[in-house]
Amino acid sequence: MHLHLPDEVYAIMGHTRMATQGSEKLNFNNHPFPGRAGDQHFALAHNGVISNDKLLQKEKSLPESYIQTDSYIAVQLLENAGHLDFNSVREMAEDLIGSFVFTILDDSDGIYFVRGNNPLTIYNFHTHGFYLYASTRDILDKTLRKIGMSRATKTEVKTNLGDILRIDSDGNIERSEFFAYNDYSAFYAFPRKTPWDNYYINQLKEIASCFGVDPQYVDLLYENGFSADEIEELLYEPEELMNYADVLEYEGLYF
Predict the structure, then answer these.
(1) Strand order in 121-125's β-sheet?
(2) Is 78 in contact with 88 (CB distance < 8 Å)?
């Protein structure tokens, strides 16, 4: 893939989607989503699954939308706030139940990163003057090898659950936080299985041991509502995967 970027472009946001709600064949369901908070335009992408989107639409009397995805509730919450800043982003994140990392591109070429309990990796290429991000370190490293930049000097921008970052067009980072909690019921109370998941899950079980994960934990997460795509991402973060598995076992949902 080759991109030609005009001189005035400072930020690019992309998203590869595995649909959990809303057909990907309808392009308006695909990320990033455009939005407008007051006089501020923005674009938002989401990695994860939100379980209380319908409830929030009713509670906050948000308008109905032809967009069918659970992710779009984040756009509506920001639009309803009437402005885009750390406060409105914090309120949006604290309203949501589910798994998420949000990236929000504002009309000043700044990008907000909102780190929930999904993975996020950001590299800063100081000498080249840009940042690059993806969900997992493995995905990002594979990309760098493919484009011939695996040896480029870089540092990782550390993020934790509950972090909000904004990187402006000059590369400066501002930080804030939101109150984050792990509501595991958001995963296992809302099954999202798809027709091809059985094949996908069997593949994940075959490679699980390469990440130091017992294949039974793939079944554990899948039977309690995690999608195959979410399990694949967690395999690259085995400690996080085991945290989820420990909670499920402790609550007696499997054994």
Answers:
(1) 130-134, 121-125, 155-157
(2) yes
Backbone φ, ψ for residue 47 (5° rounding): -115, 115
The CA distance from 76 to 62, in Å, is 7
pLDDT digits 0-9 by tens, 49-64:
888 888 898 999 988 8
Confidence of residue 91 (pLDDT cuts 50, 70, 90): very high
Whole-number Å distance between alpha carbons of 187 and 231:
11
CA distance 235 to 209: 10
**Residue whose pair of structure tokens reads 């970027």 in the numeric block:** 5
User: Sign of the C-alpha dihedral, residues 212, 150, 158, 20?
Assistant: negative
Q: Are residues 167 and 236 in the same domain?
A: no
The model's pLDDT over 93-107, given as tens digits with 9 standing for 90+, comes to 999 988 889 999 999
Q: Tokens in use for 125?
A: 């290429």
Instruction: Retrieve residue 90's tokens.
Output: 């914090």
Residues 218 and 169 in one domain: no
Task: Answer whether residue 111 is part of any domain.
Answer: yes
Query: Which tokens in the block code for residue 153?
Result: 């000097």
pTM of the model: 0.69
Q: For the domain that residue 60 is a member of, what is the CATH number?
A: 3.60.20.10
- Per-residue pLDDT reduced to its tens digit, 109-166: 999 999 998 889 999 999 999 999 998 888 889 889 988 898 999 999 999 999 999 9
Are residue 108 and residue 204 in the same domain, yes or no?
no
